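Appendix B: a complete holo record

For completeness, this appendix reproduces one full record from the ligand-bound portion of the collection. The bound molecule is fe (ii) ion. The inputs are the chain sequence and the ligand SMILES; the output is the full three-dimensional arrangement of the complex, encoded as structure tokens. No fields have been trimmed.
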Amino acid sequence: MMRTKGTLQLSHDIGSYTGYAGLPPLVGLHSMRDASSTGLTVAESSERLKRLHWSLRRLHNIFVSHITNMPVYELKMAFSLHAHYCAEHVGELANRVREMRQPPYGLEVSPHAALDMFFDEILAAPGTEELLLGIYERAVPAIVSALERIIAETNKLFDHPTWRLCRLTLVEIQDVQQYGAEAVRCLVSNETRDALQPWLSLLNRMLAAAGGLDGTDEPSGETIERHFSTLPYKYDPVPKRDERFQDPYNMGVNAEAMLFNPKIEPLPKTIMLYFKRMREIDVPEMMASILAEAGDKPWEYYRDMTRQLWDEARHAMMGELGFVAMGIDWSQIPFNFTWSLGLNTKLTSKERHAVLYTIEQGLMPKKTGKEYEWEVAIATANPLTALIQDYDWADEILHARIGREWIVPEIGSQAEAMAYGDKAWSKVLVDWNKWKEEGLTEHRNWWPEVYRAACIHWGIEPDPQLLAYNTTYQNTRADLKEVAF
Ligand SMILES: [Fe+2]
Ligand SMILES: [Fe+2]
Ligand SMILES: [Fe+2]
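The structure of the chain with fe (ii) ion bound, as generated:
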């Protein structure tokens, strides 16, 4: 062993040990005393990681399952982000378990029946308030505690990859907890909380029966009856929106027909760009249905698709930001949900994914694609619009790749996937007149009033010709193809 100046002095007092020239030993991870006296065995550490892995996997599924039918827009967006965090960490935790153990890893099976019952109950929560309390006051805090415990108890030298991974995971799950606390504060009344007390206690007892989320306690041994989850959970594919989203069948203003018309100047197109971005709320609503019904797929599939889902949610919020920055009340604009509704209720999950792929491939051509939108944004000379389109375009490159990796092999070749998606898309777009006949919408032309408001913001006079814009989606779908009847 190399003896250096700082360590020459032999001492039995482990506490006085220092590195060369007083440098902290063990890269500052532990003192020698702590390093020699703390730590979990590989078996203990991997058992806890497996519990955390399973819990985040279940939580991911809870978020994803409630994106479509969550009416509150902000929570739809929050569930998208929180699902993304869960998906990333599930993959990393599984990798760490695989590093420490030989197969079988036991990552596909529930570590304890009572733990599953705990998550089943939250998944089956019948309303927003129950869901928020279950997720953010029970599941997430239990995951945070389990992470804090393993971080404190495992040896940072021996089990450094676990320690590091859990510490980084904790940062994001604490963000989830913090946002969740805000959401509960804003949306859960004291009366509801009081009324739900027996159920919240039931959730505690389920965790106690599982020996805590991480299995570090002695299981209570209690047999517990289910409350909300007596019947198997059924995913609700019908998108819901809150009361700010009006006239959801409205297909009265064709944004693409204006956007891609080279004769129209760039500035007014800002409205159509923001509209198209915010309308992307329907993509998480639709992608959630693919994920909720995907079944047996490798976790990388869930991770990639959830990342894309979150990107689409971000795009919606970029559009929201655009409108707010312009002082436009976006609740006056109908963001239709006909796309997510049609896909979710009329197509198989393979068809839905193929439609998404077809659309995203269609965004690549120069003349009617993301690059063109970005050029329009640059031409408006508004830095925010340019930045929105810059990232919208960048994300789309990744999405096209995700599609190529996951849906193309499922169908065959790229051309076959495109044709398959194209045909499926046509199936859901034939209802424009029917919705009107049924009184679901008048397909009101919202353009003139929004354009007028924007002109006030820009300090310009509305162009009478543009004010008269009145092209709908009756005969043309969003990629400007004629609707096939
Ligand atoms: Fe998108
Ligand atoms: Fe987008
Ligand atoms: Fe996309």
